[in-house]
Amino acid sequence: MKIYLLNGPNLNMLGIREPDKYGSQSYATLLEMIREHCDKLGIELVAYQSNHEGDLVDKIQEAYFEGADGIVINPGAYTHTSIALLDAVKAVSIPTAEVHISKVEEREDFRQVSHIRQACVKTITGHGINGYVEAIDFLWENKK
């Protein structure tokens, strides 16, 4: 099984940016935890982070052409603004799980809309970085 892990803007700032909302663990720690988990399951992981919307669209399309079985995505602020990410996930028809470290449903009004959610098979919010592991496990358990 191959899973693409895609993280949007500012997620490279984990541990620095608003630790009260996103925790004190670094992006490197997040990646290490996810790689170890995927290794245990025998999952090939392609991890990518970008602050640029088009780069994330390119990676979603790459996931299709590289035969990915699943995508775990935390679009960051693009969750609430990007129709392009929604369209990309719809276009590739790869089972996609949306992850948010914080509990976005309890945050600002503008964070209440997730455009990408309608193309996702699972959404996990407010479970910290462990939400990524939950998303991977969901895709693993529901693989075709």
Beta-strand portion reads 15-25%
Return the structural class: alpha/beta
Run of helices and strands = EHHEHEHEEH
Low-confidence stretches: none
Identify the overall geometry. Answer: globular
Enumerate the strands of the largest sheet in spatial order, edge to edge or round the barrel. Answer: 2-1-3-4-5
Reported for the largest beta sheet, the result is: 5 strands, parallel
Distance between the termini: 10 Å
Q: What's the count of strands?
A: 5
Q: How many alpha or pi helices?
A: 5
Return the average pLDDT rounded to an integer.
Answer: 93
Summarize the amount of helix as a percent range.
25-40%
Radius of gyration: 14 Å
Task: Write structural notes for this entry.
- The structure is a single chain.
- This protein is 38% helix and 18% strand.
- It has helices at residues 19-22, 27-41, 53-65, 83-92, 130-141, and strands at 2-7, 44-49, 70-74, 96-100, 122-125.
- The chain has a 5-stranded parallel sheet, with helices on both faces.
